[in-house]
Design brief:
There is one protein chain. The protein is α+β, with helices and mostly antiparallel strands and about 290 residues long. It folds into two domains: about 120 residues, Aminotransferase class 4, branched-chain amino acid transferase, N-terminal domain (D-amino Acid Aminotransferase, Chain A, domain 1), CATH 3.30.470; about 150 residues, Alpha-Beta Barrel (D-amino Acid Aminotransferase, Chain A, domain 2), CATH 3.20.10. Helix content is about 25%, strand content about 30%. It is built from seven helices and 15 strands. Helix 5 crosses helix 7. The chain binds N-(5'-phosphopyridoxyl)-D-alanine (PDD). The site of N-(5'-phosphopyridoxyl)-D-alanine has 15 residues, from helix 5 and strand 13.
Length: about 290
């Protein structure tokens, strides 16, 4: 049984209980993070925590823990879950807290509910393109909200889009806005490669500023051998790309080999993926 953290206490996950009047339960009124740890070593811990603190500030949840205190709490959670011996994701969830009534307005004088638990994550993909798994996706107009930069626990829009991909036998659903421009996937950021140039949508309110996305951009730029652009990408470009990738803390960089049943490029994991994945793997613990 894994050990969870709830409001100041470590306890078996099955014993962690919250009130049904918690605003996270009633309204999805909270912020969350998912942070990967490979045998105790975290990937992007500081940027993950910084994004979480930004999200809390943006929706005015007052949680007084500092970045250093969060980092210590997660180290303790890792230690209690044998984190040095396995690959674990940490889920961190902070809701606005439990009120005595259901009222949309932000209540005064309640404390946030803080809940963290760990879950097993897979080993990274093999680094060779001939061995790495290829993923398939479907596509949909992005029907979520206009604040996708906030990592909100209110994920019904994402869940519905994820299910569109899953129900049709795919791993993800790539999303586009009303101008036929790529935004992201239901739980991932997206990249395309054309003629050796990697492109990914710019950061705005239509996408989550993914930590994996940031690490990928930084390591490609630092290496300098692959061109990379952050720009508007049309779905025509997605369909004509040589390679398409998705990224997230749990998937790292995953190559897409088919979109809506049509092959991407020659339908195999591509050479630029292999190069980028090697750069990412070398940089991710920095
Ligand atoms: N999903 N876009 C969306 C909508 C996401 O939900 C995620 C992460 C990402 C990638 O972000 P990052 O690289 O920081 O993980 C992009 C997480 C893993 C989840 O909801 O489980």
């Amino acid at each position: 049984m894994s050990t969870a953290y709830l409001n100041g206490e470590f306890l078996p996950l099955a014993e962690a209980k919250i009130s049904p009047l918690d605003r996270g339960f009633l309204f999805g009124d909270g912020i969350y993070e998912v942070i990967p740890y490979y045998r105790g070593k975290s990937v992007g811990l500081v940027p993950h925590l910084q994004r979480m603190l930004r999200g809390l500030a943006e929706i005015e949840i007052n949680c007084d823990k500092t970045l250093a205190q969060w980092s210590e709490l997660l180290d303790d959670l890792m230690a209690k879950n044998n984190g040095a011996e396995q690959n674990l994701g940490v889920y961190v969830h902070i809701s606005r807290g439990t009120d005595s009534i259901r009222n949309h307005a932000y209540p005064k004088n309640i404390s946030p509910t803080i809940f963290c638990f760990t879950f097993a994550i897979k080993d990274p993909e093999p680094a060779q393109r001939t061995k790495a798994a290829g993923y398939t996706v479907t596509t949909s107009e992005d029907l979520r909200w206009k604040r996708c930069h906030i990592k909100s626990t209110a994920l019904l829009g994402n869940v519905i889009h994820y299910q569109q991909g899953y129900a049709s036998g795919n791993h993800e659903c790539l999303l586009y806005n009303e101008h036929n421009q790529l935004t992201e996937g239901s739980s991932v950021n997206a990249f395309i490669v054309k003629d050796g140039v990697v492109s990914t949508p710019i950061l705005d309110n239509q996408i989550l500023p993914g930590i994996t996305r940031g690490i990928i951009i930084d390591c490609i730029k630092a290496d300098g051998s692959i061109s990379l652009e952050e720009r508007v990408i049309t779905m025509d470009e997605v369909h004509n790309a040589d390679e398409v990738w998705i990224s997230s803390s749990s998937k790292e960089i995953a190559a897409i080999i088919a979109i809506d049943g049509v092959k991407v490029g020659d339908g195999t994991v591509g050479p630029v993926w292999e190069k980028a994945f090697a750069l990412y793997s070398a940089a991710k613990f920095n």
